Amino acid sequence: MLGRERAHAILDHLDRFRYATRDHALFITMWDTGARISGLQALDLDDFDAEDGTVRFVSREESETRLKNGLTGERLNVLNEKTVEVLRHYIREHRRDVEDDFGRKPLFTSKFGRPTSSTFRRTTYNLTHPCFRGGCPHDEDPDTCQYREHGHESKCPSALSPHPIRTGRITDLRNRGVRIQKVAGRVDALPDTIRAYYDKPNLGEELDRRRDEIAEAGL
Length: 219
What we know:
By secondary structure, this protein is mainly alpha-helical. 46% of the residues lie in helices and 5% in strands.
């Protein structure tokens, strides 16, 4: 699972060295929204509203970008101001002006149109490699490490796919006091599903969540 501290270290590195690239725009949107990979892949350029600071997740099954829960998974998410800023600059400076096979303009692009889910996974693997922003804890030389080779990125012991990033974000929102019903609406998951599979606080985080309520109860 991706913790808040590590997520922000990656975001800080992207902000300094790869500002508003597709990787930066994708990762900050992924962390901000806690969306599934299918939701991120489904986003069109027009789904992002820079003026309102929102992004809309729409299920378009007829053009092969169905959300996991179909029409019931459609939602409008308010974005953090930093996410809006990065997306604005990405669209203006780095987004390719391309269409997918159905004539739609994806928000996140490749030279072929809409990136595949494998492309998104490979991006998160690379961004969560420790050597992306520092030294290697696995005693590998980044210049010769086999995990840096195309097709082998996921084999790095520290690499994370989109799912544990989603899990980390959901846990982070809960740690910071966001009610489970609000988290559920934002990430398109039932509260019971969040409790069972996504909300994974460590012992210290779990204690912090209870601390205020216990203190208020008194002796």
